[in-house]
Amino acid sequence: MNIRSKAWKLLMVGGLGASLLAGCGGGEEAANNAESVTVSKEGFPIVEQPITLTMMAPDVGIQNWEDMVVLQEMEKMSNIKFEYKNAPKDSFETKKNLVFASEDYPDVFYAAGLTASEQLKYGEQGVLVPLEGMIDEYAPNFKALLDEYPDVRKSITAPDGHIYSLPVVEFSQHWYRNPMWYNGEFLEKLGVDKLPETTEELYDYLKRVKEEDPNGNGEADEIPISSVTTPAANIRDIRTWLLGAFGAYEEEIYVDDSDVVHYTPMDESFKHYLEYMNRLWADGLLDPESFSQTAEQKKAKGQNNQLALFSDWNAYMTKGGEPSTEDPMFLPVRSEYVEKAAIAKNRGITTGAFAITKTNPHPEASLRWVDYLYSYEGALLFNKGPEGTLWEYENEADRTKKYLPVPDGQDREDYRATLTPNYGIPAPTVTTDDIGKGLTTDFDTWVSEETQTKLLDNGARIPFPALFLTVEEQSEINSLNSDLSTYVKQMEAKFITGAEPMSGWDNYVATLKKMGAERVAEINQAAYDRWKAN
Amino acid sequence: MKASKSSATAELPLLKKSSKRAKILANWELYLFMLPALLYFLIFHYFPMYGIQIAFKNFVPSMGVTGSPWVGFDHFERFFNSYYFWDLLWNTFSISFYELAIGFPLPIILALAFNEITSGKFKKTVQTVTYAPHFISVVVMAGMIITFLSPSNGMIVMLIEALGFNAPQFLTDPAWFKTMYVLSGVWQSTGWGTIIYLAALSGVDPQLHEAAIVDGASRFKRVLHINLPTILPTITIMLILNMGNILTVGYEKILLLQNSLNLEASDVISTYVYRAGLVDAQYSFSTAVGLFNSVINVILLVTVNWIARRTSSNSLW
Amino acid sequence: MVKAMQESKGDKMFLIGTYIYLCIALVIVLYPLIYILSASISSPQAVNSGEMWLFPKDITWAGYELVFNNPKIWNGYLNTIIYTVVGTLLNLAVTLPAAYALSRSDFIGRNWFMGFILLTMFFSGGLVPTYLVVKNLGLIDTMGALILPVAASVWNIVVARTFFQSTIPKELQEAAHIDGCTNIKLFWKIVLPLSAPIVAVMALFYGVGHWNSYFSSLIYLNSESKYPLQMVLRQILVLQEMSAEMNGAGVSGEIAQAMNSKAETASLIKYGVIVVSTLPIIAVYPFLQRYFVQGVMIGSVKG
Questions:
Q1: In chain C, positions 146-185, which contact chain A (CB-CB < 8 Å)?
Q2: Does C283 contact A at CB distance below 8 Å?
Q3: Predicted ipTM?
Q4: What domains are defined for chain A?
């Protein structure tokens, strides 16, 4: 071993090492040579001698990563070259597990979406390198972020005190789920100038939609409120919002204002929500196809101008046509049981986006590389591409930008996806309002105002912080949940459609308890208390 | 005739060892014929089989199959103790048998019908068309089912209502789920299923038909007494193989047609495992359930094969 | 005479019945097929709202354009053809001799071999150990990884064995042996030529398996240049369907917008992809059909 590493050093001296190393990419030989690379603690390049590492990441299949301008630029600046081991986004999970099983570790994981239990398991195994010790020295930008937002540090620190991965931080994205939107035409036709504020007012409005033919085609084909069912979830898109009216912040687990963790499906709020939904169903106000239709079918109804209230990213995406400020965002309503509606807000942080493995010969350099993505400049580069391609500064001092015409008249987003990897994958970076400054349209501004006045100003908050369960806790929860979530899903549908009368609620709660629902709350309470105490 | 008799007696265990050895030597090439297949199964199937032990372990990929800690029958217990265990078992069995009862005879009937037609063009067209649905992906298949059965504008629902009936809630009524699943499956696979029987029908001896015509046997009778017996060995074997797969109901299509209203009729073992594994790649749990399935399947296969051996000359072994 | 007349009348009825049965089958199957063709060129709005129910409405070729403008598609076709042809040849070379050997009642130990093979139908080591075997053989990211791990299927061996058992007369084998014909010669010169139908069926079963497979390529392949058609099509679909679940990390307003505009073509592509990937293999079928003609074998034996 010693002789070999000496030989490598000799080669380095001869100037041959760099090119040879570039060829063999990572591997053991490179590991022997680690000490000889000096990693600068600030500025670029990160390393004097070029090094090569491997990166595993999910890919949406638009452009090969080697050909992405942003990554090429990064390589030039940092002197760190990556070889990309991409797997298609939809099969990334499978590949990731095979990589761990076959011990074919890449040097770094990018946008890998490592779950909390993966981080813990592989961290304890020593496969993932603990980062907390290096952050102070080699991640100035990320450290600044942690100092500014202590909650982020709490959320990414595993119960064993180590940080195994860096997160996605999204401070400019507040929505927990897609909002709901009112059909503006219907509101106008029915002369409604003040949006419903209570569940009763909402009920009355939906009733009028049903009866007064607001789309004016002479047929009673209006659908007051509509939802969809997918294999992953059913009526989830509207549940979040209606549940809030009865005091629950989230459909599974939420913590109330006095730090008590609730398992929502056996909460009193859930019962009231079911009663209300059942009323909507019985009076034909909830689309009877809500439990079977696909998103496309719902969309077709929207384009047919049949829907009064629905969930989507923006209203026009369901209704068709151009972005319009005429369709207002749903103002969370409240029921007689609560003082104010519970409104969920996005956690703004997703852990497991970036990790370094034990075979990585240059962990410090890797960390410095990713740290750049947590600076304004780096985040901007990875988000929008380099200046002069899709955008340029109008005023660099206050970070105002403007869009440039897209080369060859292509779709802007399609073109952007050929420049940068950060397209539809949970990439390690921080998004702030500054990044898009000047690039937003009037419609975007209107949407942010709606978000501000209707959600944030009304007390939207994070239902349950991002936190770690221990491996044992996680596996207990998983095994409890596999029956619980099925039962809840089934019973919710039955209560709403009346297949099961509300008088069955007590039995339902008893069954939940038998299935261990209280234990789910208990485990999460313990984890929450730990998080809080930290 | 004489020769065949002698080979029949050769199978009797009474025979001396030396003649057995002689037989092996005489047919040495047959062992050569087996060799590639044996090697293949050895390398790609038997060698990885040590992986089954993760059913009794808590598999952590980075620790490897052998390095992961033992947990005994924990995963099996979790499955058996599931609130839904009996529902899952019942749904899996009933969907399988329903599918077998309808889906198994239809390709045979269709193949026999094809065989009666001599007109080249018509036959070719129908054959090619009926075989095409086999290639439709599950996602599109499920999408079409949902579209055709949509209560608001589905083609089939419209048709039923146009005939003056009240269309049931196909998509959400648990009573209809299995029928919907099985019939769409039949639609998709009947044509494809005929292929094997068509090949077997090519073995029918035309002289038998000629003789039967002379005897004045009707077409129907000839189908029944000549064609059907010719393909009976194939039918038997297909039935045995199908029985050995009875607990194997794929999750993809069910998952796409499943909703919380029909859940009580639509949840099967594979969808349950899929959901359980979705949270956190639970290899061990799904292997354990898979092992349970396999054991049941083997028991069924052995039983059916035993019956077949008793009642006919055809069996797997 | 009267009897013969009556019977031929009965035969006619029977034949007419058969035709009617087949026509019903044809219509039942044809409708959804036409629906798919129409849906692949109709506006998604018309398809999802149920306005398009038979013939295309608001014709658009956007779906096909998107598929065929993808530079990877032709390479994908080429790869798939190579994998299918090479893979199927290997399948036949492994399956047919083994199935024939197993069909011989004088093959000592055949029940042991049968059991050995059948067991693998039920017990499998699972994804990870299989992956490790392929990896240790150095097959990762090679054509071999798509072909060798699926070199034979138990089901097909059993089916072929049954065919040999029930259609190759024992007399034939004995006569050949008396003539001094070796087993290899017997198989190659006599059994195989007589078994055109089962060879065709096996080629079809295996070939279609290779054609449709994507899971192996998903697991074992790393370089896009080796992706088969199904993988390329999947990539196109995934990209389109990202719109379905627009929550969570990595989604911004811009992406949501882009996804929304793509969701339009997503459903088009879903149907188009079926047509693109299926037509070639459907076109093969009529050529194989001629092997399924009744009496081919016996005729040639006796003749």
A1: none
A2: no
A3: 0.88
A4: 47-176+345-437 (3.40.190.10), 180-344+464-533 (3.40.190.10)
